[in-house]
Amino acid sequence: MIELLLLVLLPLLGVLVPVFCRHWSRSSCAMATAVLPFAALALVLQLAPAVFAGDTLLLHLPWAQALGLLISLRLDGLSLLFVLLILGMGLLVILYARYYLAEKDSMPRFYAFLLLFMAAMLGVVLSNNLIQLWVFWELTSISSFLLISYWWHRADARLGARMALAITGFGGLALLAGVLLLGQVLGSYQLDVVLGKAAQLQQSNWYPLILVLILLGAFTKSAQFPFHFWLPNAMAAPTPVSAYLHSATMVKAGIFLLARLYPLLAGSDLWFLLVTLTGLTTLLVGAYLALFQHDLKGLLAYSTISHLGLITLLLGLDTDLATVAAIFHIMNHAIFKASLFMAAGIIDHESGSRDMRKLNGLWQFMPVTATLAMVASASMAGVPLLNGFLSKEMFFAETLHQDVLGALSWLIPVLATVAAILSVAYSARFIHDVFFNGQPRGLPKTPHEPPRYMRVPVEVLVALCILVGVVPHYVVGDLLAVASVAALAGPLPHYSLSIWHGFNLPLLMSMVALVLGICLYANRKHLFRFQAEIPSLNALTLFDQWFRQWVSKAQRLHQRIENGELQTYLSWLLMLMVLMLLLPLQQMGQFKGLKPELPADPLMFIAVLVAAVAA
């Protein structure tokens, strides 16, 4: 299946396209950039029927055979879902960025970085070899650093990119250690081999360490608590980057890893404890902090953290239906969150501000954009007849059928409802404070509707919010089924995508969340007053201070070692040589009594002697 290799290579080759369109018009550059990702999307749609039929498409190409390494790719239901998200969202972002970027911004450079990131993400989700997956994993960290720091002249962009690279890079090193240990325990790095060896791995004494290391990689990439702080500071990137990286790709890489390795790692008490509690904490922390953000993108960033926690919590519950709900919410979150980021970018682009304390009454200036943003916000809040409502109801249902915390397991559905209440409150704030609530205050320019085609990606995504909410079985039913089968590596449990399941406890939880969320927003002044009394921590400033301290320590160490004195260099060299000789010298006892043979040739002996004296 050489087509699998083309899925990665086509966007990678697209990195070169912007180089040739440096002097073209902006529209021509965008169209040329979109050609190869569009070809990759057409190719995967041709391969999709085989996946829907239950096949797993594999490609094995020899590489360094002496080391047991090969290029190995696989396309099953789970990777098909992510490939469609990566390519589909990527094409919408290419169109959106054409109108978002200013004339002074280098469009070819932006598109080159974007396609490099797209290729790296495709490599992650298509890899059938864990070492190969890790290589692409690190490439996503590097390419996201380039995208976040695209406006390199801004200090917040440089610091935000550096923070994202440091946190995800640390997680990447932990992931590498976990993958290497896993391969040693199971004797293979091939996913099609190791996914069937869950019992062997979990009986190993190395399992707890392997699980913790792999979870560190996944949690740092998907902004789980306590590593969540890098994501809001990555909002210094252009909005097309935020819409792409933080809804459908970058942060979803960690979620993908959890879903991909779910059949191998899940099923133990340690998995329950670590994944469930991390997801629950992230869900609550993100939802709470989102309510107090004044920056539109800041609110969306913390809401993203919360929804990522929701998905992680579902995977931690470790039931078949919870996994199906997690896959479903991956789809829904990508759709409504990308549309919201793009709507926030339009508001910023056409009004000159993202501060909700200034953005009031925009309904009268941009009614079409306002309508689109309100529908996407309602989906995020879980309003019925929208896609977010369906997956949240599945989420509520699964929190009711678990015993993770024993006698305290009732806390999980209660806290899930609290998080949903906060979700409704910050969604209501997004709608009311921006589009109603009086008149704009001190905006740099008079707001107005964006160029027609800048709004098209938002319209497509909002239409999907409605279609999935009304007729989910026809729109995403088959894709959800094959993706869930691949994640479970087993039979699909019975579930229903009907929009009406009668009056039940999950519906009651949804209604309680909607009513109390509106009430909470209406009385937000008390909560804002309480939050104002809590000392605030600026993660970006703290990280910058920490980073400068380590740079200073590294400089002092460097000056101590490389001080310009030859004697110092020779001392370090001799110390290293002695340390390296200690181990072989310990084995010298076996040569006791043996006499070394001197060179028989006198000329050879003289040559060795001269070399020794010269040394």
Brief digest:
With 615 residues, the chain is mainly alpha-helical.
Radius of gyration: 27 Å
Number of helices: 27
User: H/E order of the elements?
Assistant: HHHEEHHHHHHHHHHHHHHHHHHHHHHHH
The N- and C-terminal alpha carbons lie at a distance of 58 Å
Helix proportion:
over 70%
Which structural class is indicated by helix and strand composition?
mainly alpha
Q: How can the largest sheet be summarized?
A: 2 strands, antiparallel
Shape category:
globular
Name the average pLDDT: 90
How much β-strand is present in the residues?
under 5%
Q: Based on DSSP secondary structure assignment, what is the total number of beta strands?
A: 2
Strand order within the widest beta sheet: 1-2
Q: Uncertain spans, ≥5 residues at pLDDT below 50?
A: none
Please tell me about this protein's structure.
There is one protein chain. The longest helix has 32 residues, at 155-186. Helix 1 (2-14) runs antiparallel to helix 5 and helix 15 runs parallel beside helix 20. Strand 1 and strand 2 form a beta hairpin. The chain has helices spanning 2-14, 17-20, 26-52, 77-100, 107-126, 130-148, 155-186, 191-194, 198-202, 207-221, 230-233, 239-245, 250-260, 262-265, 269-290, 296-317, 320-351, 367-381, 387-399, 411-435, 456-470, 472-488, 505-522, 524-532, 539-561, 566-586, 602-614, and strands at residues 57-62, 70-75. It is mostly helical.
